[in-house]
């Protein structure tokens, strides 16, 4: 059993802390946001993540998982200190904002009174490991205390976070201090995953390159989808046919509304920015971002090509979160789509199984006119008197709707399937004017 402190109770921090506790370690999660810690202490989980609430409760009961706003309390006797704070897009051209990581490093320096391994889990620009080391060294309240810094990027997905943490494809550890890296490796040994030990720059780059590659796969298949549409091919079957080739793989070849969320958009931007700064011109990364933005616009274009004007039309939106199984609205395609259709005079009826409240807040922040948006409590309510429905998020419950009832409730049976969850022929035979993405209709 090890004593671990995790700084930051966002997705990565909370899941990391909880899973390490579940593996038998003694974990204290620190966050400076008092309200978040107060809620966690009351047993409320601030994010929607399947299985997380139960796992937190179990480990709190077992006395292995604690929450505090005090760095001193969190750091006391901790052998391992994980930094898992967020690194949003900064103000200059897509650069990553390191403010929270730097703040965490300073706070650690001020409180650290014993040797510890400081592990960075936040996605940070290549070279940040050095910055963290420098900040801690400069601000150490006890200059006689020694420490090591290890980069350990996290690859978990929202919605499958626990499963991904406990069954990683690999664990990446980067450091100039191999002894410290081996200590961290020991924490992960029970997971029986391949462990890659490398230098800190390379570890940081592995994270960016992995996310950028996955984003590239998505933009690639979205470009192929557009070509399929013109030439009469079906991109869904193309992806299946391609995916059998082991060198390609089927994953992340689902054409649709493109990627959103807190990671891909920010990380591709940050990587492109780092390359730009280095005097390179990363053409592929820029194309990936452009195609991703175009996909959102394309859906609204399809709508306009069928309905003509959107003025006074009622548009149903199924799914608001950036993907299924989360209430996360960061960079969700629904926000752009709702802004554009309401901008053209449409009214919106929207439903998401869990993201209603986070969606309302995100729309407010983005200046979307909430008086034009009605939040419904299920898909059938969305369909009532709608002139069209757009499927924006592929929640499972949208895959098994009674489409005859949906059609009967609508004013005009227009279905834009932004996630290709229905079969075009079937929808047409039910009387829908159906448009998928890259499916030749
Ligand atoms: C992503 C990575 O998958 C994780 O490995 C990584 O740890 C994480 O970012 C991160 O950097 O923290 P996440 O953003 O939770 O995880 O979500 P994904 O499941 O990867 O989906 C990202 C976006 O791509 C979603 O908007 C999804 O709808 C879209 N997507 C995914 C597609 O449009 N097509 C696909 O085939 C797959």
Brief overview, please?
The chain has 17 helices and 14 strands. The chain is an alpha/beta fold.
Give the CATH topology of the largest domain: Rossmann fold
Shape: globular
Catalogue the ligands: uridine-5'-diphosphate-glucuronic acid
N-to-C terminal Cα separation, in Å? 58 Å
Low-confidence stretches: none
Percentage beta strand:
5-15%
Tally of structural domains: 2
Commentary on this structure:
This protein is α/β, with parallel strands linked by helices and 441 residues long. The protein has 2 domains: 3-198, 3-Layer(aba) Sandwich (Rossmann fold); 243-435, Rossmann fold, CATH 3.40.50. Helices cover 44% and strands 14% of the residues. The strands form 3 sheets. A 6-stranded parallel beta sheet has the order 3-2-1-4-5-6, sandwiched between helices. Strand 7, helix 8 and strand 8 form a beta-alpha-beta unit. Helix 1 (11-22) packs across helix 3, helix 5 (99-111) runs parallel beside helix 6 and helix 12 crosses helix 13 (333-343). The chain is globular, with a radius of gyration of 23 Å. The structure holds uridine-5'-diphosphate-glucuronic acid (UGA). Uridine-5'-diphosphate-glucuronic acid (UGA) binds at residues 123, 154-158, 211, 214, 218, 252-254, 256, 258-261, 263-264, 322-323. Uridine-5'-diphosphate-glucuronic acid is lined by residues 123, 154-158, 211, 214, 218, 252-254, 256, 258-261, 263-264, 322-323.
